[in-house]
Design a protein that fits this description.
By secondary structure, the protein is of the alpha/beta class. The chain contains 16 helices and 13 strands.
Length: 439
């Protein structure tokens, strides 16, 4: 088939490449000239190496090309952003604009697939609505929703290997979309109606948000009661039907902080649990900052805080909705000087320190926000060489607290009362159980 992909971001680009390698003639368009130029220069703007290789291979076949305008096709895949507007409601203007842009090119029975994560009913209200506005009868087209279900850092494997939900406005649309995705998806594909498919994706991310909110609330409770939250959660997870995720300084990324609003906005009166979970996770940066304030004495304007990690999760470059951004904003509002170091993040809201040493230079506290593998090797001796103060705030339970305390540091780990020192077992390793990290 001739396929046009609108939006060459985290999902649109690898999807376009896989379709091309699957034998289709694919035209990829992005509104950003910077994105298009970077792809023409060999994908230099692609951080994930497996995706970069995939895209380069697809471009070399000639079946994938980067276009400067939307090209006519037999199938159109819309992969555009759906951010929250200032009032917290979902902004579907990019989806509407994409549908309106392809409307003049559509022929009867063309396939239009929306991949963007959206509130239930978007295919009917926004896609079909935009076509009607353009004078194109939606019933003459095949409209479908096929939400992505991948995780940054493992996009290529998960695009191929994760089960897909194919929702069609009609059964014919669902089957046609399924046949297209068969060219690269190795896993099971389940067909349903478009609204159900839209709801399923939002349910998946809302589940994770609610689960993490439970972990975070337990962490706060454990701090008050003097219990080690990480040990308690790990032991609770020994039950065969319990799987609590790990606490942290908040949640980030393009999905989990945003998608629950799609459900809450649909009916605020019956989504109290979802809204409460959102509030719990959204205020975790405030809790971290409060602990920093408790531990760092003196006037804030004379104190420097070094933040380790700017991306929203470990070992990925994506910094969208990162808890670090809110923590940094709160600290600066209170008058603190801050420096942020991240060895992999890109696109952060302000310049990052060029090195760990530069971030720690003269710092009164070091705050571990993101548990990148690269930070596991940071030692008390290295930190002491650069820091002025001796305060460690660990929001991910990455550091060996007793070792840092033995080196003269005051250590606070999220989920443990700040004044409590953890006991050690006879072999020198931590005696407590460890919670499983959030995948």
């Amino acid at each position: 088939m001739r396929v046009t992909v609108l939006g060459l971001g985290y999902i649109g680009l690898p999807t376009a490449a896989m379709l091309a390698l699957g034998g289709h003639d694919v035209s990829g368009f992005d509104v950003s000239p910077k994105v298009r130029d970077g792809l023409r220069r060999g994908g230099e703007n692609i951080a994930e190496l497996a995706v970069r290789k995939l895209v380069v291979d697809a471009l070399e076949t000639g079946r994938l090309r980067v276009a400067d305008a939307i090209e006519p096709a037999d199938a159109y895949i819309i992969c555009v952003p759906t951010p929250n507007a200032a009032d917290g409601r979902p902004d579907l203007s990019y989806v509407h604009s994409a549908a309106a842009a392809i409307a003049p090119m559509l022929k009867p029975k063309d396939l239009v697939i929306l991949e963007s994560t959206v509130p239930p009913g978007t295919v009917e209200r926004v896609i079909a609505g935009a076509l009607r506005e353009a004078g194109v009868p939606p019933d003459s087209m095949l409209l479908a929703h096929c939400p992505e279900r991948v995780i940054p850092g493992d996009i290529v494997r998960e695009l191929k290997g994760n089960a897909r939900i194919i929702g069609g406005r009609t059964l014919e649309a669902a089957e046609k979309a399924r046949d297209l995705y068969k060219s690269f998806v190795d896993a099971d594909m389940f067909t349903t109606d478009a609204t159900t498919a839209e709801l399923v994706k939002v349910i998946e991310n809302t589940f994770r948000d609610v689960n993490i909110a439970l972990a975070n609330e337990l962490a706060l409770l454990c701090e008050e009661t003097g219990v080690d939250a990480w040990e308690a959660i790990a032991l609770a997870n020994k039950h065969p039907r319990v799987n609590i995720l790990s606490p942290g300084p908040g949640v980030g990324g393009h999905c989990i902080p945003i998608d629950p609003h799609f459900l809450a906005d649909a009916n605020p009166f019956i989504t109290e649990l979802i809204q409460t979970a959102r509030r719990v996770n959204a205020r975790m940066p405030n809790h971290v900052v409060r602990r920093i304030r408790d531990l760092v004495a003196g006037p804030a304007h004379e104190r420097k805080i070094a933040l380790l990690g700017a991306s929203y999760k470990a070992n990925v470059d994506d910094s969208r909705e990162s808890p670090t951004q809110r923590i940094d904003e709160l600290l600066r509002e209170q008058g603190f000087n801050t420096a942020i170091f991240d060895p992999v993040a890109s696109g952060f809201s302000r310049p990052l320190s060029p090195s760990l040493a530069a971030a720690l230079d003269g710092a009164d506290a070091m705050v571990l926000v993101v548990d990148h593998d690269a930070f596991k090797s940071v030692t008390p001796a290295e930190a002491a060489k650069h820091m002025r103060g001796r305060v460690i705030v660990d929001a991910r339970d990455l550091f060996d607290a007793p070792a840092w305390q033995s080196a003269g540091f005051s250590v606070y780990t999220l989920g443990r009362r700040p004044s409590v020192r953890q006991s050690r077992s006879t072999n020198g390793s931590s005696a407590r159980a460890k919670a499983v990290r959030n995948p």
